[in-house]
Amino acid sequence: MWKIITDAIPQLLVAGLKFTLPMAIISFVIGMVIALAVALTRISTKRGAFNLLRWLASAYVWLFRSTPLLVQLFIVYFGLPHLIIPGVFPEGIKLDPFMAGIITFSLNTGAYCAETVRASLLSVPQGQWEAAYAIGMRRGMVLRRIIIPQALRTALPPLSNSFIGLVKDTSLAVSITIVEMFEVSQQIAATNYQPLLMYTLVALLYAVFCTVLSWLQSWLERKFSAYTSVEGGMIS
Fold first, then answer.
1. Which of 31, 134, 151, 173 can bridge 110 by disulfide, Cβ–Cβ 3.0-4.6 Å?
2. Which residues pair with 85 in a beta bridge?
3. What is the pLDDT of residues 164-175, one digit of tens each?
4. What domains does the chain contain, in order, with CATH numbers?
């Protein structure tokens, strides 16, 4: 048994460092860019074309939060090749498995994190917007220098939890043939006929990864809290 474990751990770690973590990190970064853009669109009070943009942003969040992640993976990887657009995609949209995973995880993460970011932005007192406008600051500067830094402190714990959840969700990438940790554990189990041992081992490795990320989350929260003081449950 120990030989099986010592032989399997390096293979699982390589898959984790080569596919699982990079896929989670890249998807989360792209997802956060999407989330910020969607959140800012949804809280905007501009009229005209922004009404349509707000509707599209709300529809995007609704769609990806209302459908299973596994189904989204299947649509992007197996479904899009059948979407034939003459003159643009005459043979359908065919994606590499890793790219399909990145796109799907990014869009899914963006939808969930958009609500977190939106709520955090709205949690900043309206008076701070008014005070910034009163001294001549423009909206972009107010967001960059006053609103977003405060909102980030509020959003950090739930966003960190979303990232940790994303690391675990990457195990679903096995369904579109990405050779991440869970897929490698399945391949090894098929050769040594020890599925319980292999699945327990990969579960422990996921737990190790997530524990390290949880420690990093705690450190970041302490780092950010060093610049704030809490009085009566409100940041001052």
1. 31
2. 89
3. 999 999 999 999
4. 2-235 (1.10.3720.10)
Strands (E), the chain: 230-231, 234-235
Instruction: In whole angstroms, give the CA distance from residue 226 to residue 221.
Output: 9
CA–CA gap between residue 145 and residue 135 (Å, rounded) = 13
Tell me the C-alpha distance between 66 and 72, whole Å. 11
Tokens 């979303």 sit on residue: 162
Give Cα 52 to chain centroid, integer Å: 25
Q: For the beta carbon of residue 230, count every other beta carbon within 10 angstroms.
A: 9
Q: How far apart are CA 110 and CA 37, in angstroms?
A: 9
Q: Using an 8 Å Cβ cutoff, are 61 and 43 in contact?
A: no
DSSP per residue, 90-131: TT-----HHHHHHHHHHHHHHHHHHHHHHHHHHHS-HHHHHH
Greatest alpha-carbon pair distance for the chain in Å reads 70
Say whether pTM exceeds 0.85: yes
